[in-house]
Design goal:
Elements lengths: L1 E6 L7 E6 H26 L4 E5 L7 H16 L3 E5 L10 H11 L7 E4 L6 H11 L2 E4 L9 H4 L9 E7 L1 H19 L5 E7 L6 H15 L3 E8 L5 H14 L5 E4 L2 H14 L8 E5 L3 H9 L4 E4 L4 H13 L5 H5 L1 E4 L2 E3 L4 H14 L20 H5 L8
Helix pairs in contact: 2-11, 3-4, 6-7, 8-9, 10-13
Length: 399
């Protein structure tokens, strides 16, 4: 029933203490747990590089998503983060459930990442959150919102899915509105009295971007007198060749079209190709714009081949890495800026496109992204993830 511990002090006589075997077992268990805890803490302190996997929804040939990825790699290097990018194949992108499988492959690996970055596609996002929750991997959704009919499946970040720690949402409604509003305003300056005829080319409906951008288009049209939407069609992809094919059909059906609204830069560039192929319509002018701030589109805007490009959401890739970096190092962002952050958009026209393109490439590669981090810059009291602030970050190391 009892064990015996014999304690010999330097001056004290031999003392016999009676200890129950249950107590001995408890002492041993606590000792082992202490060793394991110490070992885990030591391993954590040695591993100062958070491991992040970005589940890219496209192939490496997609110009928008490669820009997102390039900025993400730049941020990871500056913040000393271990970033892995998982691409889709051309066959994968035709089925949204291949995206779920790709997430499962990552999360079921022997050594899963600390964080998973991914998009919400229809009927996929909640499945990925369930997988991440099951294995305890923290996740963040970026560049996508939640479909209205799926909101009950998600709830809010840190609610039903505790490990879903953040959701960055680009303001796609604002993007669609800004693009349409500026294009219609420019067209009205040339046509003071007539009806401004408009056609729209939307992208894939798998995500929420297409629907929200289309809502913005319709709001702008409702606010502009004597403007009409002759047609709004969906494309299977967001790519240039599909934009050209759709625009050729639309412009032949509606030869008086003055404004071509496209939900992506790729679609807009294709529409511009189609307009050049057909020639001027009966109204004598066409204004073509897209969304994404891709390098190709900004260059086309500079040359006058494209009227406008709306963007800024590509910077979410940097914002996400800053928040995950700070979270890993003990600075949670739940209160500032919050677990759900809506990121704004801005318009690039011929006057600003060249400078913006330079700033988004060589200049941004040289700036110190650490200046956005509360962990790296101890002078920061609040995060400032505005487009203006990010694009005006100075170069060089923190003082």
């Amino acid at each position: 029933m009892f064990g015996m511990i014999r304690i010999r002090g330097s001056r004290a006589p031999l003392v016999d203490l009676c200890v129950s075997r249950r107590s001995l077992g408890l002492i041993y268990l606590l000792f082992v747990l202490s060793l394991l805890s110490t070992s885990a803490s030591a391993a954590r302190s040695d591993n100062t590089r958070p491991r992040v996997v970005f589940l890219n929804p496209a192939t490496p040939e997609n110009i928008f998503w490669e820009k997102v990825t390039r900025l993400m790699r730049h941020g990871a290097q500056q913040l000393d983060m271990d970033l892995t990018v998982s691409y889709q194949t051309q066959e994968d992108i035709t089925s949204r459930f291949s995206y779920v499988k790709a997430a499962n492959d990552i999360l079921s690996a022997e050594n899963p990442p600390d964080y998973l970055l991914f998009l919400n596609l229809r009927d996929t996002g909640h499945r990925i959150l369930e997988q991440a929750e099951a294995v305890g991997v923290k996740s963040m959704m970026i560049l996508s919102d939640i479909h209205d009919d799926e909101r009950l499946l998600f709830g809010e970040p840190r609610g039903k899915f505790r490990h879903w720690i953040g959701h960055l949402v680009s303001d796609d409604h604002q993007a669609g509105y800004l693009l349409a509003d500026r294009l219609l305003t420019m067209a009205r300056k040339l046509d003071r009295s007539g009806v401004i005829e408009t056609v729209g080319i939307n992208g894939s409906i798998n995500g929420t971007a297409a629907a929200l951008r289309a809502q913005g288009l319709k709001q702008a049209l409702a606010e502009h007198e004597r403007s009409s939407l002759n047609a709004l069609v969906n494309s299977r992809t967001w790519l240039r060749q599909d934009g050209q094919a759709k625009a050729l059909v639309l412009l032949r059906r509606h030869p008086g079209t003055e404004v071509i609204w496209a939900a992506s830069d790729g679609l807009a560039l294709g529409a511009s190709d189609a307009a050049a192929e057909i020639g001027g319509g009966s109204a004598g002018a066409r204004f073509v714009g897209g969304i994404d701030w891709t390098d190709e589109a900004l260059e086309a805007v500079t040359k006058g081949q494209l009227t406008l490009s709306v963007g800024g959401h590509v910077l979410e890739s940097l914002i996400a890495l800053v928040l995950l970096h700070d979270h890993y190092h003990g600075r949670d962002f739940n209160r500032d800026p919050g677990a759900r952050l809506l990121t704004p958009m801005a318009v690039a026209d011929r006057r600003s496109a060249a400078q913006l393109q330079k700033r988004m490439n060589a200049d941004l590669d040289a700036v110190n992204i650490q200046r956005l981090s509360k962990v790296r810059d101890h002078t920061l009291e609040r995060y400032d993830f505005s487009i203006a602030n990010i694009l005006s970050l100075p170069q060089g190391a923190l003082e």
